[in-house]
Amino acid sequence: xxxxxxxxxxxxxxxxxxxxxxxxxxxxxxxxPMFKAGMKVKEISFEAMYWRKANAIHKWFVxxxxxxxxxxxxxxxxxxxxKELVDTCKIVLADKEKANTLxxxxxxxxxxxxxIDQYYIDDLQDTVDRLGDLLNMxxxxxxxxxxxxxx
Length: 151
Known about the structure:
Strand order of the largest sheet: 2-1-4-3
Strand content: 15-25%
Distance between the termini: 7 Å
Mean pLDDT: 93
Radius of gyration: 18 Å
Number of helices: 6
Structural class: alpha+beta
């Protein structure tokens, strides 16, 4: 039990793009009995990032993307916001004195520590590294990103 956080990337698959249609056909072939009943593959998704008890990052998503509403709902996050999160993490990593202003820890039921300690720093560095790679992915704009937490 605790704060689990997920960033999911989703991409709609078109019948009019040959490569995407091939992917849809391959998935349909694997799950053939279901698709005989009229089901169709419409999108693919993958877990782009996972955090565990990174409560400062969670607070950032709640404040910046969920209008302060924290009900474990799935929320769309555009690429510009993800870049903003990476930039914010970089600022705090360069100057820890800015942590309580820019990325303050948040207490909550099994949200983990509210100390600005090595675990906090590691969460920020992991966010910079993983989201940095994601945002440098070719055609990243073709994906839609969604944040969701569970606690």
